[in-house]
């Protein structure tokens, strides 16, 4: 079974013919470590699904400091969603932290597929809700948990990511300095 079919079927059931139709709307893409999928101020027309690899979404503040918004690993979706949905310029960078194998779908194809195939509309609605819940939980954690609690939560939820990204990026994701993160390891 194709890995995307397995991923989709965690939410909806597809026949092989239905999946072939869905897959025909996706394009494979390979990127090397340190290549960008998206850079700030670009128009964004693609949503990516990660087959293999690890990526990071981040933005730069006025002083040039990086703030990590999201990591994306196998079976995760990633793009600048505001730019993708509203067809405006991106506010974030998405960088490949490892060599990546991806599938992407254009905004036009996703809309077309959702219109003609309501099962996929339900799939994306469910994924959007789950993404919103994860985002809300992250904001709540940033507001109410200590740095140690945020680190422990990330370690428990995403042990695969902790082992694959630099401590500097983990600190950026947790909203702490690299020095503070080092103290948490002690």
TrEMBL record:
Q: Which Pfam families match?
A: cNMP_binding (PF00027)
User: InterPro entries attached here?
Assistant: cNMP-bd_dom, cNMP-bd_dom_sf, RmlC-like_jellyroll
List each copy of the Cyclic nucleotide-binding domain by range.
31-115
Q: Which CDD domains match?
A: CAP_ED
**Domain of life per record:** Bacteria
The protein in question is named Crp/Fnr family transcriptional regulator
